[in-house]
Amino acid sequence: MESLNNLDTSKAYQDGFLEGYRFGGCQAVLERVSMQESPSKIKCRVLYVPQGFEAIDRGVAEALSELTEESAVAAPGSALAMAVSFRPDLVLVMNGLHVFPPEHEEQIQAIRGLGIRTAIWFVDDPYFTDDTVRMAPAYDEVFTHELECVELYQRMGCRKVHYLPLAANPQMFRPVRSSLQYHYDICFIGNAFWNRAELFDQMASYLQDKKVFIAGQHWERLANYGLLSRFISNRWIEPEETVSYYNGAKIVINLHRPTEAGSDNRNGLNIPGGSINPRTYEIGGCGTLQMTDCRSDLTQHYKPGYDIETFADAAELQAKIDYYLTHDHERIQMAWRALWTTRSKHTFHLRITSLLAALQIK
Questions:
Q1: Spatial separation of the C-alpha atoms in residues 175 and 287, rounded to whole Å
Q2: CB of 163 within 8 A of CB of 144?
Q3: What average pLDDT does this structure show over 200-227?
Q4: pLDDT-derived band at 38, boundaries 50, 70, 90
Q5: Quick one: which H or E segment has residue 280?
Q6: Which of 1, 11, 76, 220 gets the most CB atoms within 10 Å of its CB?
Q7: The pTM is what?
């Protein structure tokens, strides 16, 4: 028993040392990343209409506040009334889905009738294209994070369509010292779409001797739920707590949701998914090693084997988990590179700068 206690103490000491080493290196990276500051604020007024995804909405609103002379936020149902009183140069809508009223498109047409430019940024493409292809022509300008949807909106009659990838909010997704309750070998946070359930079913036996945290909804879909249930938290994890889990994990898995039309998607045209999800940037912004499946535009943003790891199937994922759980310094160094890449290239400050430039707002 004494020998086992000594082993536990030694492992805890080693894990604590490595976490301090990771966090200290992250601070050094942040000190070296130059701040993306605009020399002067752009002379325009922007009204932002959020979707309700705090991790994205807060980043966009903060970037608009930093970059423009004046910005405001309007609830989806009050966009027209706010536009009448605020008289912005631009109304920027996030997604236009779920929480927006049925008369939303009519409101946008009325805003345009006031001589105010309108733009929408679709960040859930291609999963709700049954809805987005209907609403996109209502806007002056369409932005989408999904490369595969640019041509789709052009075919729908939208004259000005822009590819604008997602990003991370550095004030939210950042390196932090997380308490022991958030320390895991492997972490996955997200809903159990069928491809994710299949992956974890295949890995159920392999994960039994690992310290694993899985959170989200619909994990009862697992065929091997009994084997994995002790790892699963069937709940929504708020962004602030997600940050603690990402920082506390040695490895965070990212698996994109499937795009096929069905119970989880409204994508009747079966538009494929080529662009990476927001989770890719958010994990990188926490300075943690990420293992992700490949999307076609991944290499535009990260370099597999350098600042991110990839896998094609469960066997490759397991082999890479084994490697990086026994090669601590390589794991941490890759996490530092991910943080550098994310902070220097993938913040909402940079994305909103690109958006305003595309609209020729200077």
A1: 6
A2: yes
A3: 98
A4: low
A5: helix 278-285
A6: 76
A7: 0.94
